[in-house]
Write a structure and sequence with these properties.
single chain, about 425 residues, alpha/beta, Urease, subunit C, domain 1, TIM Barrel, 2 domains, 4-stranded antiparallel beta sheet, globular, disordered C terminus, binds zinc ion
Length: about 425
C-alpha cells in the first residue's frame, strides 16, 4: 500500500499566537500561511477547525529497543544500576523479532500522539550476538520509512569492544554513543568513543553523567569536541545540575562554546535518581533554565518508556513538556519548544512548523491554546509528516449530565411534549469538545 497522498492545504488551523490560518503545502514544505478562508481550495485538504496547529514533536533521546519490556521483565523498582542488571538478564534470552516488534509498536504509539522524529539509542549486547539489537532497529527504520524520521545511536557501554561499535555502524546506525560515566576510567572511555566518531567522521550522542553525585565528564567532553563541525549531543546531564554553582556555570559556558546539544530526560531521571537520598529532596534533572539562559541548544526526551528504567510513560511529548514545567520551572512555551523545535535542532532535522519554507511536520491537536494542550493532552490529534497525514485520532466521550443541566433538560422536555408518555431526557450527553465529530 502507498503512503497517504501529500496534502496541499491545512484549513482553519489555530496557531499558538491565536491567529486562525490556512496553511499551504507543496510536497514536504510549507509554501504559504494566510488568513483563514483565503487559501486556494484543494482536493487534498484537511479541515482543522477547532484544532491547535503545532510544530510536530520530536524525541531526541529514546530507547526503542528496550521499550515495552516492563511487563515481561517485571523488574524490581529502583535505581539505574538495578535497571541495568534487570535489562541485561532479559537480553540474554531476547531475540531479534522481540526487539523489532516492541520497538515498532513503541514508535507507532509515539507517532500516533504526534512525534514525527525519533533518535533512539540501541544497545550493543553482551553474549554471542552483540549486534542483534542493531539489526532489529535497522529493520524497524526501514519499516518506518516515510512515516517518521528515525536516527539510531550505537549505545556502547564501557565493556563493549571497538569492533562491535564499528560492526553496528557498518549496519547503518548513524551516531556513536555510550555512557563514559559508568566506566572505571570515565575519561579513557570518553576519549575512546570520541576517537571512533572522529575517525569515521560522524556525530556522537553520549549518555553523560547520569547520576546525582558520580563522575562529571561534561567539561572534558566539551573541550575535546570544540571546533568539531558535526552533530554532538549530551543526554541526561543530571550531574551538571548538582555541581557547585561556579563550576556548573563554567561547564555550561563550555557547552555553549562547543555547541553541544543538551537533552534533559525528566521522566526517567526523576524516576531513576535519588533512591539513596533519605529526604528525597535532591532530584535528577539537567539545569534547564540555566542552559536556556546561556543559549545552549536544549531539548528534552522521554528516554525510557515502560521498561526497567522507567515503569511509566505515555509515549506523548506533552508528558515530557509537562514535567519540564513542573519539575524544571520552564514556561509552557519553552517546554513545548524543548520537545519540538529544540529537539529537531539537537537532532539536526530541518526546522518545521507553520512558517514559509519550513518542513511540513505538524501536530494538530483539539484545543484553543498551548497551555490547554500541555495541561490536558487531548486525544484528538492529526499528525502530519513531510506533508502527509500519517495519523489521526478521534475519540467520542459521554458523561452523565450535572444536576442543573438535567433539570433544565427535563423542564424543556415537559414544556415541549404534552403526552404523559413522553420520552425522558437522556441521562448522558456528548462532551461538547468532541460533539462536533
Ligand atoms: Zn538514555
Amino acid at each position: 500500500m502507498d503512503l497517504p497522498r501529500p496534502l496541499s492545504l491545512l484549513r482553519r488551523a489555530t496557531l499558538p499566537d491565536g491567529r486562525i490560518v490556512d496553511v499551504e503545502l507543496a510536497g514536504d514544505v510549507v509554501t504559504g500561511v494566510r488568513a483563514a478562508g483565503t487559501g486556494a481550495p484543494s482536493a487534498n485538504e484537511v479541515d482543522l477547525d477547532g484544532y491547535l496547529l503545532l510544530t510536530a514533536p520530536a524525541d531526541p533521546h529514546s530507547h526503542l529497543d528496550k521499550a515495552r519490556s516492563w511487563d515481561a521483565i517485571q523488574p524490581p523498582m529502583g535505581d539505574l544500576m538495578g535497571a541495568i542488571e534487570s535489562w541485561r538478564e532479559y537480553t540474554a534470552a531476547m531475540d531479534e523479532d522481540d526487539v523489532a516488534e516492541r520497538a515498532l509498536a513503541q514508535a507507532l504509539a509515539m507517532l500516533e500522539r504526534g512525534t514525527t522524529g525519533i533518535r533512539s539509542h540501541v544497545d550493543v549486547l553482551r553474549g554471542d550476538d552483540p549486534l542483534l539489537g542493531a539489526r532489529a532497529m535497522a529493520r524497524v527504520r526501514d519499516e518506518l520509512d516515510g512515516l517518521l524520521d528515525l536516527e539510531l545511536v550505537v549505545l556502547a557501554g564501557p565493556d563493549v569492544p571497538d569492533e562491535h561499535i564499528h560492526g553496528a555502524l557498518d549496519l547503518g546506525l548513524d551516531l556513536v554513543g555510550g555512557a563514559p560515566h559508568l566506566a572505571d576510567d570515565p575519561s579513557a572511555d570518553l576519549q575512546r568513543l570520541l576517537a571512533i566518531a572522529l575517525g569515521r567522521d560522524i556525530g556522537v550522542d553520549l549518555h553523560t553523567d547520569e547520576s546525582l553525585d558520580g563522575p562529571a565528564t561534561l567539561e572534558e567532553f566539551a573541550a575535546t569536541v570544540r571546533g568539531w563541525n558535526r552533530n554532538v549531543t549530551a543526554g541526561h546531564c543530571v550531574r551538571l545540575g548538582t555541581l557547585p554553582t561556579e563550576e556548573r556555570l563554567r561547564v555550561i559556558d563550555a557547552i555553549v562554546e562547543s555547541d553541544i546539544g543538551i537533552v534533559a530526560n525528566p521522566i526517567t531521571n526523576l524516576y531513576l535518581q535519588g533512591w539513596g537520598h533519605e529526604s528525597g529532596g535532591l532530584r535528577g534533572l539537567a539545569p534547564a533554565r540555566e542552559l536556556l539562559s546561556a543559549g545552549a541548544r536544549f531539548a528534552a526526551g522521554a528516554d525510557n518508556i515502560r521498561d526497567p528504567f522507567n515503569p511509566l510513560g505515555r509515549s506523548d511529548a506533552l508528558e515530557t513538556a509537562m514535567l519540564l514545567v513542573i519539575a524544571g520551572h520552564l514556561t509552557i512555551d519553552e517546554a513545548y519548544a524543548a520537545v519540538s523545535d529544540g529537539a529537531r535542532a539537537v537532532m539536526g532535522l530541518p526546522a518545521a512548523g507553520a512558517v514559509v519554507g519550513a518542513r511540513a511536520d505538524f501536530l494538530a491537536i483539539r484545543g484553543g491554546s498551548l497551555a490547554e494542550a500541555v495541561a490536558t493532552a487531548p486525544a484528538d490529534r492529526k499528525v502530519i509528516h513531510a506533508g502527509r497525514l500519517v495519523a489521526s485520532t478521534t475519540v467520542s466521550t459521554t458523561v452523565a449530565q450535572p444536576a442543573r443541566s438535567r433539570a433544565a433538560a427535563g423542564a424543556a422536555a415537559a414544556a415541549s411534549i404534552a403526552p404523559a408518555s413522553a420520552t425522558a431526557a437522556p441521562a448522558t450527553a456528548p462532551v461538547p469538545s468532541t460533539a462536533r465529530d
